[in-house]
Amino acid sequence: MLKTILRHGCRLRSVVNMRFSAPLCNNIHTLTPSNVQANGQIWPHVFVSRRTRMIDQFVKDAGQMRTSPPLTPRDIESRVLRICNEYDKIQEANKNKITLVTHFMNDLGLDSLDHVEIIVALENEFGFEIPDADYDKLYTVQNVVDYLIKKMNVTDRSKTTVSSAPDPRYDDHHH
Amino acid sequence: MTNNLTRSRVLQLYKRLIKLSHTWQAVDHPAKTAEERLYIRNETRSLFRKNKHVENANELEEHIREGEARVELACHYKNPYPRLVNLPTYSLPPSHNRIRYKSEYEVEDMSRPIYLKSYEIKEETSDNEEPSKT
């Protein structure tokens, strides 16, 4: 039984490696007899359509493992400022005036507990733990940005990432 | 006067509570997850700020214990709300017609759990309040 399946599979390898568009995939599926044999016998054309659907799913999953775009310092700055603006303890008057040189305690009137909350929000955003010993260094926005740049090894020129995922611009033919 | 060790302990406890408020899942009433998360966050903020001016080392230690006890209880019973207590057994409520002897105060002190320390209501005494140092 397994040998039959493998023989069928090997014979169809050239077909299986192609990427079928959705309408063609549906057409292939309708070529089968209406009820797929449930007793385990696998028809070649059903096998083909199931394999293409699996391959399309694999391609979509691989696309989700795509690496994030390389970070630039500008990107980090904008994210940090956005998180600071979202913090609800900051008065409305100061909200949009947060710049790189803002000191959390002196300029915004926050205390050490608020500082801890902001750092926890930053940890959630950037996805890594900031040890307690470093909290003392992070009292101004500029210090936070520099610290994050150092921790994440962000360089100024953006490196081209080489990934095996397909180009997102050409993904549309599956819809 | 708080030395750096207690300060870092307090901040670590605060951080742990804030992280708990982000990842809390309500087990008994799943629809109330957001409400319980908000409760945890507001509770930590208000109680930590209320007790910010505690200077006495023993009191500080007990407040840290209170925080840790509440975290452990919440994680264990999956319920962030503290369990309230009433008068201890064989005791009467205070009333101005009745003299309360020292033993009665002691029994009541011993029966109060540590995790409700911030909710204690101090009886009005005629002592002067010490000026609080910030």
From TrEMBL, chain A:
Pathway: Lipid metabolism; fatty acid biosynthesis. It is found in: Mitochondrion. One of its GO terms (molecular function) is acyl carrier activity. Residues 74-152 form the Carrier domain. Belongs to the acyl carrier protein (ACP) family. PANTHER family: ACYL CARRIER PROTEIN, ACYL CARRIER PROTEIN, MITOCHONDRIAL. Carrier of the growing fatty acid chain in fatty acid biosynthesis. This is Acyl carrier protein. It comes from Adineta ricciae (Rotifer).
UniProtKB/TrEMBL annotation, chain B:
It comes from the Eukaryota. Transmembrane segments: none annotated. Residues 9-71 form the Complex 1 LYR protein domain. Pfam families: Complex1_LYR. InterPro entries: Complex1_LYR_dom, Complex1_LYR_LYRM1, LYRM1. One of its GO terms (cellular component) is mitochondrion. Signal peptide: none annotated. Belongs to the complex I LYR family. This is Complex 1 LYR protein domain-containing protein. It comes from Adineta ricciae.
